């Protein structure tokens, strides 16, 4: 019997749709270690067919969110910008995997995060787990200056929380996040993207990719 195709979880038409899809609809759980560990598993360590299908189905929405001039005011609030970052940094890597377009909106996502920092919103408006997602466009950038900004922020992700378990969890994530920077420091770019972007590997990159 043929396997039934996974359907998209939901439509991602509004900022709230995207945040509910990515973080869960109960925001109070975003300070719960067990819920955050579950999210990390879905985001970073396990392939989730429903999440993949949803992002693929929303490819046109991702394209739309890359053009700020076409967006309503709801996309410029703290929630709206976070939702755009999720789509332009995480959604792209799923919807356009293996193609140059997977990285096409990285600079837009990076600039959104730098704007958040400039506004003073990074610590005032977002919870630790949301801050981690906001750090990713900086770490996904091949601009080492963005990594320098991220390296200061990742040590402060849990700032403002008094839950020692939460503090320890984000502290333990620092080395995982720093691995991104080490690659860019060494090669000046991400060798893993070379194939999708039509770039030629250097001998050092060939050795790295084969290891």
UniProtKB/TrEMBL annotation:
InterPro entries: DUF924 (IPR010323), TPR-like_helical_dom_sf (IPR011990). It holds the Pfam family DUF924. It comes from Spumella elongata. This is DUF924 domain-containing protein. Gene3D superfamilies: Tetratricopeptide repeat domain, TPR-like.
């Amino acid at each position: 019997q043929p396997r039934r195709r996974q359907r998209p979880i939901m439509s991602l038409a509004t900022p709230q749709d995207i945040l509910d899809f990515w973080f869960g609809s109960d925001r109070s759980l975003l300070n719960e270690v067990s819920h955050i560990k579950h999210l990390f598993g879905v985001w970073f360590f396990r392939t989730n067919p429903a999440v993949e299908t949803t992002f693929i189905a929303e490819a046109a929405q991702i394209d739309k969110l890359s053009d700020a001039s076409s967006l309503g005011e709801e996309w410029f609030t703290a929630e709206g910008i976070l939702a755009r970052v999720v789509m332009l940094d995480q959604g792209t890597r799923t919807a356009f995997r293996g193609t140059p377009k997977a990285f096409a909106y990285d600079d837009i996502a990076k600039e959104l995060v730098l704007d958040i920092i400039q506004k003073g919103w990074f610590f005032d408006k977002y919870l630790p787990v949301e801050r981690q997602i906001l750090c990713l466009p900086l770490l996904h950038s091949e601009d080492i200056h963005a990594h320098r900004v991220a390296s200061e922020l990742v040590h402060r992700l849990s700032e403002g929380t008094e839950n020692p378990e939460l503090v320890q969890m984000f502290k333990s994530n620092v080395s995982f996040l720093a691995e991104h920077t080490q690659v860019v420091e060494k090669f000046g770019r991400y060798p893993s993207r070379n194939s999708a972007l039509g770039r030629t590997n250097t001998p050092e990159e060939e050795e790295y990719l084969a290891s």
